[in-house]
Design a protein that fits this description.
Blueprint: H1 11-30, E1 32-33, E2 36-37, H2 40-66, H3 76-86, H4 88-107, H5 113-127
Antiparallel strand pairs: 1-2
Length: about 130
Amino acid sequence: MAQQHNQPLTPAQEAERYLENARQILTEKAGKKDGLYADVKYVKMAAGTAYSAALLILDEYLLQKEGIHFTKPKSIEDYTNRLRKLDKKLLALLVDVYDELHIAGYYHGTQSVNTIQTGLNNVRQMLSYI
C-alpha cells in the first residue's frame, strides 16, 4: 500500500501495515520447514510487530467507544478490564493474541508456525472492530 506524504494513515491502515510487515518478516527471514520457523529472532520480531498492530486496533476501538474520556491503557489488565465492559468477543481475541503473539511469539520465541499464524489471523479479525 503506497502512502502519500501529505495524508497520514488511518489507524486501520496503520494496523494493516504492521500486519503486512510481520508477514513479510516471517516470509522473507524466519525460514519455514516442517511446520516450524528456523530463525527465532525473526519470529520474535514479527510477533512483536503483529502484537503492536493489535494494540493500535484496541486503542482506536476504545477511543471510538470512550470518546473524550479515552486514555491510553497502561497494561494488558487495563485493556482487558475495559473490553470486558464493551465487547466480550473482542476481549476473547485479545486474550488469544496476547498468548499467541506476545507471550509465545515475542517472549518465548516459539518456532510453531501454527501458533504465530493463528495469532496473525486473530489480529486480522480484530481489524473489523474499527
